[in-house]
Amino acid sequence: MLAVLSPGQGSQKPGFLASWLELPGTEARLRWWSALSGVDLVHLGTAADAEEIKDTARTQPLLVAAALLAAERLPMHDVSVVAGHSVGELGAAALAGALSAEAAVTLAGVRGREMAAACALEPTGMSAVLGGDAAEVLAAIEAHGLYPANRNGAGQVVAAGALDALAKLGAEPPAKARVIALQVAGAFHTPYMAPAEQALAAVAAGITPADPTRILLSNLDGNAVAHGRDLLTRLVRQVTAPVRWDLCMRTLADLGVTAVLELPPAGTLAGLVKRELKANGIEIVTLNTPDDLPAARDLVARHGTAPSHEPSPQFRVVVAGTAGLFHPAEGLAEGDTVSTGQTIGHVSTRQGPVEVAAHGDGLLTEWLAHHDDPVAPGQPLARIGGHPA
């Protein structure tokens, strides 16, 4: 099983899109997306220096555009799982078929501008806390009145909040940990970004998302997102909510992912996966230039879904949104008609039952999990096919 990952802010490098613009049609594509996002993506991806592309308002649409540009050169129909880090979630949502490329780039432009504006309201920032006991690190962050904005796994937590509080954390780091101030504009993924969340919500309300056509993992809790509306709500909420990349990687392991392909500018997420999941033996390829496309396509061919020329019925697979024990709805059997939004079962968790609903009209053609089966996030539970007569 193959997962394609879309990186977030901080992964950009000057001129990283220059080689891509040598491919036919890519410059025109970027100019179209520039009109939608409100920034010059061609200039930013080729001629802009590090300081210019560090600007949140410019960086966010640039990163989403870069991921989508490269993905257009891949056989994405063979990809099973997609995920993105922070703003990379917008790119992943488009790759999952839940958003159009145009909608993803437009939302990235709004998100970047509004988060930059929120950063200007108060002097805030972010610091990486590396090493130390995880519980002690989180306790120290809370004790200083800060927020764990990113939990990236592999002993990496990013603290965010007021600059004076970050300075105190740096002067009094948790045991066996070191604190490194990050060159960012403000405290992303914290309540300081509330104005940006509200502004993004106002624009997102005008978008009609589709349900993902492949497994799409959410930064909010690492769960697979089955419904387009839920996805859009999560994307907006993520502006002020912590990025739980650690939980996304845990789900990759739970799903049995055998290979990971990171889209440009690649390297950051691949490094986290390598350190966190090295025992799983996952094969990793980073796609940074068109020269990397043969290796990327080879990875897709070996770990993706095998293509078939045989005609196949159209169906939707309902997946678990969380881990627990699955219980099909009482009296619902294979061959029964189901409708959009109908509860077909629930997953029992320690926090209580989580309903599982059909995301399309049709026939329940096959149960893929049965009563009291343990299920992982993103695990297929039922197959719904065709339309009722």
From TrEMBL:
E.C. number: 2.3.1.39
Signal peptide feature range: none
The entry's keywords: Acyltransferase, Transferase
InterPro entries: Ac_transferase_dom_sf, Acyl_transferase_dom, Acyl_Trfase/lysoPLipase, Mal-CoA-ACP_Trans/PKS_FabD, Malonyl_transacylase_ACP-bd, Single_hybrid_motif
Catalytic activity, as annotated: holo-[ACP] + malonyl-CoA = malonyl-[ACP] + CoA
Malonyl-CoA:ACP transacylase (MAT) domain: residues covered: 5-325
Alphabetical list of Gene3D superfamilies matching this protein: 2.40.50.100, Malonyl-CoA ACP transacylase, ACP-binding (3.30.70.250), Malonyl-Coenzyme A Acyl Carrier Protein, domain 2 (3.40.366.10)
Pfam families: Acyl_transf_1
PANTHER family for this protein: MALONYL-COA-ACYL CARRIER PROTEIN TRANSACYLASE, MITOCHONDRIAL (PTHR42681:SF1)
UniProt-recorded name of the protein: [acyl-carrier-protein] S-malonyltransferase
Species annotation: Asanoa iriomotensis
